[in-house]
Records
---
Amino acid sequence: MVRADEPAKVRTGRAPPGFLPLAITEFWERFALAGVKSFLILTLIDDVLATDRGSVLGLSGIGRLLGGWFGPLTTAGLASQIYGITNALLYLAVPLGGLFGDYLGKRQYGVHLGALTMIAGLTAMFTRTLFLPGLMVFALGAGTLKGNLSVVVGALFTDDGARRRGFAVYLGFLNAGVICGPLVCGALTVFGGWRWGIAAAAVAVAAGLACALTATRLRAATGDSAGFTSLARTRSPTGHRANLPLLLLMLLSVFLAFGAYEQVGNMFLVWTRDQVDLRIAGWQIPLPWLLSIDGLFTLALIPLVQVALRALARRGLAIDDIGQMTLGCGSCALGNLVLAFGAWVQPGALPSIYPLAYLLCVDLAIVLVWPAGLSVVTRSAPARLVGFWVGLFYLHGFFANLWVGFSGAWYEAMPHADFWLMHAAIAAAGAAVALLARALPGRPARLRQEAITTSA
């Protein structure tokens, strides 16, 4: 419901000029990113690393470096390391891309440069020789785009309530891209080869760049292009006090939860390919489509979880931020236990209920953990360093993907049930850390949650 004291232009429900093209830009960026991730690990194992490794530029150096750190690596182990390094590089590039946008003074230029860099990387990936350098360039471009696009969108709004509603719509476009990317790119890879998947991702980024340029022209036509460079100041909560011990514990809990979750695009796909029969009524589900189901589950769970939390609150059973963190980490542990149980009890042609149950549990975990953790960070950080602490929060993707690559190298060297039990233990440790935060002195009884959920 819109408050009576909000500006009239907000009550009309009309989006500011340029918002829709930028939201579509986010759709295409996530389409390309999720599409490439859906077939990356299997393309590395089955094509890039399968034969004639000497023809792949940079592979021998990466192999020697990682082999010196971790010892001899299997093909799956090396592919997992490359997957983890690529995703870690992407998340590390997000704050660096944001700094670049600050330096330029106009963040839309950071968006444009990020898209062009992504296209250049995807073009290089068409050949096995330049696949790895192109992959790294693609990741840097995606990080640069991500580090600027959401800030540009936020700058379009001068009212806090309108901005929150705008980001809710923006979230819908984001998750739609996460769902559609693997459906299209994954299907093209399965039926035509990995170059078709890369081509689809490149076309998607080009479409996103065209939308971003359209947004710039629309803002210029209204004489309000300055909105691209600055965000309206938001009010700090009354009585705001920093709580560094709570911040550190909640960040640790988030990092542990995502460390257990991020195998969803890595060894989860390898395990499912080897252990699960994905045929339903005689039709084979393309393996990359599991990542589309991952996004679909997340999108569906967001409103369902919010309705459930409000219903519990009306019955006097309100779940605070620590409770949501604990439940989320517990759900992530349960999802990994599902895979461990399947690997232990019935190895081989498992029914598709196993990967679907896993995805439902880990997606519920993210829907619970993400908003609660971000809410605590934004409300408990020192008033002048909120942006710094939010940046640390977003590094969960960096550290989680480093862990994914590192731990994935053990996948073939240990029983698969033990591999998933290890990740269940990591998520359970996140729940324990969240419970430890509840015992901290001076913690507010309940922090009102206003964060927007996304699995990105």
---
Amino acid sequence: MTREKLNREAITAALAELEGWSLAADGASIKRSFGFKNFSEAFPS
């Protein structure tokens, strides 16, 4: 069974429901970025 790729309109609509996610520059993947004050903050204890 093969899967069809979503068209740009479907991608935009789906991403609108996902907080913090956006279409990557390549247009073929999605991305989400996280920001931390320092390295230690990135790893909860």
---
Amino acid sequence: MIFGKSKSEILKSSQCEVFDIMKVGANISRLRKSAGLTQTELADRLNVSFQAVSNWERGQSCPDIANLMELAKLFGVSVDRILGSERAAELVTDISEEKAPKMSAEEIKNFAPILDETQADSVVRKNLLDDNEDYKTTEEESRSEDNEEPESLFTVPTSLLPYLSDDLINELIADAVKKDGIGAVPADWLPFVDEDVLSEIAREIMEKDGISAIPEDWLPFIDEDSFSDMVDIVCEKNGIGALPSDWLPYIGEEWISEQAKKAVEKGGKDALPTDWLPFVDEEVLGKIAREIMEKDGISAIPEDWLPFIDEDSFSDMVDEVCEKNGIGALPSDWLPYIGEEWISEQAKKAVEKGGKDALPTDWLPFVDEEVLGKIAREIMEKDGISAIPEDWLPFIDEDILSEFIRKRLKKK
């Protein structure tokens, strides 16, 4: 296995000698001035930008190996005079001569920013991968005393990935999955893996173990065409209910809405999984709900659909039901999703038209307490305080209710 946390006993290397990028910058600046060159003149000699030289001297970046060798040649000094480290100079010289020197993981991380992809691949293969006998540990040696599974035998730190070639990264990922399964791939490697390679691996996983075996953290990094193909295959073969809910945020709303519509047309409202609702276009869901209402009545619309139906469709269905059959025909589980102002206005009209009994009890918690108080006052003024239904009292505005009580006491 090639991934995992680095351990000193695995790397079997001494502490590396690290060059100081600030000192390197100071050395370049001093040598440039001694040579009587401006930053612009040095940049021209090296065929780099003025900003690059400025960044080197300020310690913001470091010359790559090719430029370090050119600087040493230009100034007539050894590389270690620039880097301030014999070990670092030795490594630079070996790498420039296309040798892959023995390096610790820390040395590789330190040198990575000045390596090109070919150089980085070479030193990683030489020092950190399983073809390097110097870094190998037997499975028996890597086991702990309590017989736990062995730690990762070889390590490529995530910090090196930006410097490695796509070919090497893809090779490592493919090998890891082949040897140890998808769990061998750390999530922080995914942004560096070619999406076509990852997609091919994901498809193989799906064909072998099913779509739910593909880790959710892989989904943003699978190419769009492969993603769509896998989704289509699963839905066509096993229905939309077979699609894992954690895939939905990565699928387009238009596709989800179209599939939702087809599912309901074919299998009825129960064929639309609840976890799909937040991802269906609210207008499409509103149209589907209206068709259900026209066929089977408003109570046939599932309550868990209500928060996801568009406001206009929702209001139209409510108005249609109330105008046709009265407010009592409106299911009580719809009330929390209807505005208080509309409910209060309908409550007022219902009592004006049909009296206090025309206001359903389950509407009371949703009527504005001041509006209910005013309705109650009108009833009291007409028929007396005892005509106000007792179950209204907890929902009447406190000031209005106090007024009723004072008037009643005054009469007594």
---
Amino acid sequence: MSGAGQPPSQPGAGWGGPTQLATQIHGADQEEEQSDRDIGKNVGNQTRELFVVCEPAEALRQQFERYRQPYIVLHGVGTLGSRKLLASIAQAAGWPQRRLVIRRQGFGNTLAELFYVDCPAHDGKLLRLYATEVEAEPMARSSVSRLLLRGASMAGLLLDNLPEGTLASTLRGLHEDLLAAGTCRHLVFLPQARSDHLIAQVEELKRRGLTQSEVAPATTQPAALWALVATAWNRVHQPRAAQGSPVLRQIAIGARAPASRPAAPVRPAAEAAPVAHAPAIDTPARSTTAVPAAGAAPAQAAGISATDDTLRRYVEQLKPLAGVRGGCVFELHSLKVLATLDGAALPDKLAQQGRQLIMAAAQAGPVLGLGAAIGELLLSLGSAQLLLRPVPRRAGVLLHLVIERGTDLEALRVGLKRADLELAG
């Protein structure tokens, strides 16, 4: 191969096939590479190389059409932070950060570099997480970034503190581009600070067709940002697992407290036996949810209420269990209350404080060398106890019960397991 930037000795010497093909695979290991089901050739050092005879965005488009694997992207809106966040997630989780180098066939010069992490999913699958911040010349960088975003199954959008007018015009442009030329319809907005204007803009996007757009709680912590995106992914794709959708295994990633200021986690009386058929509670290591202000209007709850019949039947089975005062079922990432029991006069506060406890425990686990997956939390407060545990077959959904202190926990767990098995069945 000639040196970078030097033409081959004869016209056409750099490739031996039709120039409309984006990729040429060389050598005796061609069959191995084709069975690898991945883009480019592994050259070691967490790097793959793709030699192309067209523009890098067009080459990638052809590869994505060939392999048709779902993926998530991290994309900055008004900020350049996707690659830094990707590296932080990889470091916290202990996953290698990889790169795809796209080179000009016959010349060898680099056209673009993409950065990604392969995230472990159940059943031995992997789900790729790309950063749309790529290394390339300006025109190629823009086209590759746009291609990654358009073709993603889900996008985590990092938002800087943009002025209202700039934010509105930027999101309109994003919306129009995705509807006109992309397949990505699930956007998770990741703001640095709470913005009522952003929430209003996202609601408008949903009315215009991006029906799975959502605004996550504001945070700048990489572990929390990953947990928000991963929980949103599992919530959508776990029901599709039987059809082959990958379900992420690791939502909580190891956050370590600074050495100079050790964390002071809540110390619940942990009863850590995992629940049958229920996923481990995988949560961010730090909470960014504010404690409800004093005097906030309580949510109304009368009897049993639920967002669907299956959860209604689930909580109906819990109501007669000895010692149960009340409780709620809620989504961890959004704090949405999905079902309530009698006695849960403040289900929104139960959800908020439940997430605070889960996040504190997820932070304490890695610091103490115990891991971050939580099977169950039990905390004694005054005359009552709080019990937090996962709801089976509902990724990122938790049950938060208020029970009488002194309740026979063995008998309670038998009743809970019975309800779990019926819901899971």
